[in-house]
């Protein structure tokens, strides 16, 4: 029986016992009395009390509060999908250690903390905050600044917080275009707008009988967390991998229970300085692409580099550290670990990598520029593909319209 099964069994049995003890069925003896009468039914008190009686694996997961008392932990969700919020649970039973080590003082998706509770805290009172999601409206910005002020350690957690992530692709448009599309062109909204004498858009303030209501102001430009505040650590990924969370948790446990030094400020937790291609087990032969394909369109060779098979893979322009689960599963890397430290432009770096697949331009009579253009035009949405996670943090981080909206 695995550790997880043991723990699940432990809590299931304890839960059943508690229910029995709390609600004896009509005309039935209380569970404690029944337990005494039953030779093979162990009383609950013997199972849940002293940790000395727990299996060793469970004792390791439940170290008790740190010598200096529990630390304070917060997790907040800016402009993101919620995947980062949920990813913390990927550490499975180690969440028990988090519970022993920390009081969760603010984590809107999981506990009922309010912004005013955070505002009432002392500066630096929260030991560590994980901030996920990008900054694309006034509320994201306010909460990021507030949590920075109230936290000793601020972690930029996930691709959206680190580089704007997928919300950053909104930088290809401005707020007016986005609002116009969402509120007048999408089928459901169009049906509603057709019933109105003039288009109705959300207002940032509204005078209700109970008082003035506010909703956040949507910004024209999506930004990363460290464009706005000082960040202590980064955890890349979309969402971060369990292995990275383990490294982060291990560093915190070492620091809080044993006084170990934390990693240097600015460390990318669980990431490597190499590119994914250096970590990926697929064999690279630098074959020339003749046709761009998606994985479902071909019988993918299990050992050969995906680019050599015509599948555009962002691995050459992406930082390693994830263990290449996507490429091992015959899916191309999408770039969620961001660019390596050696380059600031993931998309431009990827463009260079793709261009290097045509080194024969000068000496191969069978291929010319038109042919290359024809092949490359098969890449649907190259900007969105090459900058899927990092547009907001790139050198040219947004589309700029000429006067007149062109
Ligand atoms: S990094 Fe990925 S998982 Fe996390 S909020 Fe952004 S889109 Fe969601
Ligand atoms: S391009 Fe993709 S599939 Fe090929 S070696 Fe690099 S990471 Fe692996």
Throw out a few tags for this protein.
406 residues; Rossmann fold; 3 domains; two-stranded antiparallel ribbon; binds iron/sulfur cluster
Outline the structure in words:
By secondary structure, the chain is α/β, with parallel strands linked by helices. It has 3 domains: 3-61, no CATH class; 64-271, Rossmann fold, CATH 3.40.50.700; 276-393, no CATH class. The protein has helices spanning 3-22, 31-37, 44-48, 56-61, 83-87, 95-101, 115-119, 138-150, 159-163, 175-185, 187-193, 242-258, 276-279, 325-328, 346-355, 369-376, 382-386, and strands at 71-77, 102-106, 126-132, 135-137, 151-157, 205-208, 211-214, 218-223, 233-235. The strands form 3 sheets. A 5-stranded parallel β-sheet has the order 2-1-3-5-9, sandwiched between helices. Strands 4-8 form a two-stranded antiparallel ribbon. Strand 6 and strand 7 form a beta hairpin. Helix 10 (175-185) crosses helix 11 (187-193).
